[in-house]
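Is this the right way to post structure tokens for a design question? Let me know if I should format differently. Anyway, here goes:
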């Protein structure tokens, strides 16, 4: 059966963060993901996860200063030590939470980041470092193309570029996080994209396009796309990373339908 994970940074925001774990479990989710857990002690977050009985699927490594527009450190010059410290922190949380996947945000390099080649070399070197550290703990590092309409200037936008990076890093602990919302906006042709990236995809995320609401609306045919994922043998988690159109539980008909639950 398809395994869906609730993104707690977007879903159940009617509740305090630590209460969202149980809310997700009560709604029928068996896994959770979110952007960042670092505002809470790792042991406290882990206790909330265990009490709810859900699996921790994914979260992001520290992104730098989010409040000033930083969206990851992997391509930013002069941030090597901060990046490495972030890897260490993220792995400590991953071990406490039993999480096997960490997303490394590429970042918005800016005009002072050097040439395109320098940015690429910096990105590859930092991801390789993260992968080496993560592999020692049984953790996979993920890269995710993000559309530059939602995140202007983001370095990693095309799935083809992500494949190039993964090939150049050449480490078994690096894989693709395929967000079908971003991919539809960036390039479309999702059925073929899923097939073309099946060998490197370790996590999938869904939302409607263009509004990023419940994933069974808008431009995408969720039933068809889930069928393509089945066709290529994808057995990983599918993260529900969307902004509910209203109260979270009121919009979960899609989850119950695709889980085959009568609710």
């Amino acid at each position: 059966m398809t395994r869906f994970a609730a993104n707690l940074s977007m879903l159940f925001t009617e509740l305090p963060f630590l209460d969202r774990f149980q809310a997700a479990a009560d709604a029928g989710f068996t896994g959770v993901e979110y952007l960042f857990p670092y505002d809470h002690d790792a042991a406290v977050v882990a206790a909330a996860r265990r009490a709810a009985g859900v699996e921790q699927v994914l979260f992001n490594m520290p992104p730098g200063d989010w409040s000033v527009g930083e969206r990851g450190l992997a391509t930013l010059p002069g941030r090597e030590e901060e990046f490495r410290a972030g890897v260490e922190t993220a792995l400590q949380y991953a071990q406490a939470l039993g999480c096997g996947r960490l997303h490394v945000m590429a970042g918005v390099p800016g005009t002072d980041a050097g040439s395109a080649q320098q940015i690429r070399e910096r990105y590859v070197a930092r991801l390789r470092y993260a992968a080496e550290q993560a592999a020692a703990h049984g953790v996979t590092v993920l890269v995710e193309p993000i559309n530059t309409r939602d995140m202007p200037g983001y370095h990693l936008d095309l799935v083809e570029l992500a494949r190039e990076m993964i090939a150049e890093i050449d480490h078994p602990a690096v894989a693709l996080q395929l967000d079908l919302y971003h991919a539809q906006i960036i390039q479309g042709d999702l059925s073929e994209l899923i097939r073309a990236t099946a060998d490197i995809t370790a996590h999938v995320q869904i939302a409607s396009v263009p509004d990023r609401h419940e994933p069974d609306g808008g431009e995408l045919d969720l039933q068809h796309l889930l069928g393509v994922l089945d066709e290529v043998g994808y057995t990983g988690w599918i993260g529900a990373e969307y902004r509910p159109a209203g109260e979270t539980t009121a919009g979960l008909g899609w989850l119950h339908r695709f889980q085959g639950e009568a609710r």
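Format looks fine. Someone answered above. Worth noting: The beta strands are 3-7, 31-33, 55-60, 101-103, 140-143, 174-179, 201-206, 237-240. The CA atoms of residues 144 and 177 lie 5 Å apart.
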